[in-house]
Amino acid sequence: MAQTIVITGLADGMGRDVAKLLAQSGDSIAGFDVDEAGINSLREELKAIGGDHLLTTMDITDRPGILKFRDQVLQKYGKVDIVLSNVGIGFFDPFEEVNLEKALKCLEINVIGCAAIFQAFIPSLRKQGGGKLIAMSSLVGQIPFPFESIYTASKFAIEGMVDALRLEVAPFGIRVALIEPAQVCTKFAAKIHHLPPEGSPYRERAKRFIDKDNELIKTAPSCGQAANIIVKVLKSDKPSLHNQMAFRDSFFMLINKWLPMSVRDNILVNFMDIKV
């Protein structure tokens, strides 16, 4: 049965591939992204696939714009079945050297952006008797990674927020879920990886971390593979709260839950090649 699905951050990467897969199955896609060129080219691709779609260029921090977008979507389609919060930016820096203004922007986009799109559509989902809210989180939403303290904080916040609101909206038939990828073979990591400056006490270990991350990305799920997994979660009648993309990710989640902290830390620093 065709559904109407809202997706934020769909101009590139996994969001774009998810949108195309859903359009191919007959679903209507409503979404936005700050990348105007990406939105325009995706609009043409979806038009070629067929169906009725609503795409616009907008920044996730534009909260009045989000409410206007919601009204346009509901006026056009009458209802929304699923909201996928996919927008997000990465952040890589030793904590001591973090620019806190840039950190605030990351938290605003990743956390409050997710909150804003969910909050906008919850009233209509509640009144219609159900729907799904799905948030893109990360492995680091469960397992803190060094040099990604701000990004980790944003994903921990998303996990806590979604888990809490789950209990609030469940009586109205609204289901929530988190998707927690580790590495995916996209340009996402490359956009944020940069070495600390010469003289930084963190530079050498950060370089080893980046090299290891780049190595892992080569064998990570492709955008297409990741999109297929995301679509399965979206289409599930009763999606699990936590959803990973690979056995390795699920394994790390398991040992993170049960092993002593000292053992977990040792595994992590060895795995990411940052042991002193």
Report a brief summary of the structure.
This protein has 276 residues and is of the alpha/beta class. It has ten helices and seven strands.
Task: Set out the fold topology.
Layout: E1 4-8, H1 13-24, E2 28-33, H2 36-49, E3 54-57, H3 63-77, E4 82-85, H4 100-128, E5 131-136, H5 149-169, E6 174-179, H6 188-192, H7 203-218, H8 223-235, E7 242-243, H9 247-258, H10 261-271
Parallel strand pairs: 1-2, 1-4, 2-3, 4-5, 5-6, 6-7
What do these coordinates show?
- This protein has 276 residues and is of the alpha/beta class.
- The chain has a single domain (4-188, 222-247), classed as Rossmann fold, CATH 3.40.50.720.
- The protein is 54% helix and 12% strand.
- The chain is built from ten helices and seven strands.
- It has a seven-stranded parallel β-sheet, with helices on both faces.
- The protein starts with a strand and ends in a 5-residue tail after the last helix.
For the record, what CATH class applies? Answer: Alpha Beta
Largest sheet: 7 strands, parallel
Average pLDDT level: 93
CATH superfamily: NAD(P)-binding Rossmann-like Domain
Number of H- or I-type helical stretches = 10
**What order do the helices and strands follow?**
EHEHEHEHEHEHHHEHH
CATH architecture: 3-Layer(aba) Sandwich
N-to-C terminal Cα separation, in Å? 55 Å
Q: Which structural category fits the helices and strands? A: alpha/beta
